[in-house]
Amino acid sequence: RGYVKRLLAKEFEKHQIDKKSNITVENNDDFTINIIEATTDRTLVVLTRSGKAYPLKVNDIPSGSNRSTTRHEYKGVPLVTLLSPSATKEMTDARQEFIIAQFVLQEAEENKDLIMLTQNGKIKRLPLSDLSDITNRGITVIKLKEEDELRYANLAQVGEQVVLATSGGRLLRLEIDEEQLPLMGRTAQGSQATRLRKQEELVGCVTLDGESNLFLVSEQGYGKRIAIGSLRVANRGGIGQNAFQFTRQTDVLAGIVVSRSDVVAQMLTTEGKVCGMMVDSVKVYGQDDRGNRLVKLGAKERIIKVVGY
Questions:
Q1: CA–CA separation, 204 vs 169, rounded Å?
Q2: Is residue 222 within 8 Å of residue 247, measured between CB atoms?
Q3: Residue 135 pLDDT more than 80?
Q4: Which residues lie below 8 Å from residue 76, measured CB to CB, with a gap of 6+?
Q5: Can you identify the CATH homologous superfamily of domain 17-308?
Q6: In what order do the strands lie in the sheet with 191-192?
Q7: How far apart are CA 196 and CA 182, in angstroms?
Q8: What does each C-alpha distance from 224 to 20, 96, 257, 269, 299 come to in angstroms?
Q9: pTM, whole model, 2 decimals?
Q10: Listed residue (75, 46, 50) closest to 58, CA to CA
Q11: Per-residue pLDDT tens for 18-68?
């Protein structure tokens, strides 16, 4: 729901997964989607759907506690309320949907780039150094057409790869290099990454090395892991390849998560349930396999969001 809080590292407790069933199901109105390790002298960069970036000093984030009985210390505060008035003026939708990504500016990451993907499939690589002069008024990181919006943003570097996922179960694997993703300035629109079919939308964009696995989950609760090596490296503008065989024609892909050791996947359903599981507990299948039912859902219940941390 867009809340943020600052904890001491020793206070942090990762989501606990039942060791027998490898999954937990909770009725909750909120859940964790991102955890960032930082010192209080650093700056958090917040990206919005409108393609702008705003700074926030880590020290300006109110400290909280997982054991506190005070609501704001336990739950945190809405992140958007900590940004400059310039950010809230452009907010036209729900605040939890307004912010799409956040990361900390680190000196050690000056050689990294920002990989951005829009709703209509435009992809762009921006040097992270272009954000060094960011001010409270915010800066534009990608130029958007009226009907488009920024959906995903990840940090990466040359030599890594980016994988895009569509609701139809297609995955597109691209090399992060000057040929496929040339560096662009802040006001550039980006290039067309892939063409979406009718009634198809983008449901994920992750960056990774060439050795990782991917965790895929469908709206109706089916899932599997696939080896990144089973996907061919494609060219920008391609359609990718089918990587998920749906058990029912009404099912679609809900999201993807990079599979690493100790990564917890959180899945939110239309009924407000949060299902958590260890990603590495899921079996690895080929791209032509259906996978297994991971979550038991109600007749009309669907998974609407998938995140990993």
A1: 11
A2: yes
A3: yes
A4: 3, 4, 5, 62, 64
A5: DNA gyrase/topoisomerase IV, subunit A, C-terminal (2.120.10.90)
A6: 150-156, 113-118, 122-127, 191-192
A7: 22
A8: 19, 28, 11, 18, 22
A9: 0.89
A10: 46
A11: 444 455 666 666 767 778 888 889 999 999 999 999 999 999 998 876 665
**Are the CB atoms for 254 and 218 separated by under 8 Å?**
yes
* Inter-residue contact 126 to 116 (CB < 8 Å): yes
The tens digit of pLDDT for each residue in 192-241 reads: 999 999 999 999 999 998 778 999 999 999 999 999 999 999 999 999 99
The tokens describing 220, both together, are 């109706």
Residue with tokens 């829009």: 118
56 C-beta neighbours (distance < 10 Å), count: 20
In the numeric block, the tokens 């990451």 are attached to 109
Q: Check: CB of residue 15 under 8 Å from CB of residue 28.
A: no
Closest to 178 measured CA to CA, from 227, 221, 117, 125: 125
Please report where in the chains the tokens 């109105």 appear, as a residue: 29
| 208 in Cβ contact with 148 (< 8 Å) | no
Q: Give yes or no for a contact between 116 and 143, defined as CB atoms under 8 angstroms apart.
A: no
Q: Can you say whether the dihedral through the CA atoms of 96, 97, 99, 100 is positive or negative?
A: positive
| Element containing residue 102 per DSSP (H, E) | strand 99-105
| Residue-wise pLDDT tens digits, 72-94 | 556 788 888 889 888 877 666 55
pLDDT band at 95 (very low <50, low <70, confident <90, very high): low
The SS3 assignment for 73 reads helix
Domain ranges for the chain: 17-308
The H or E element that residue 37 is part of is none
Distance between CA atoms of 286 and 288, rounded to whole angstroms? Answer: 5
3-state secondary structure of 60: helix
pLDDT tens-digit readout, 256-280: 999 988 888 999 999 989 888 889 8
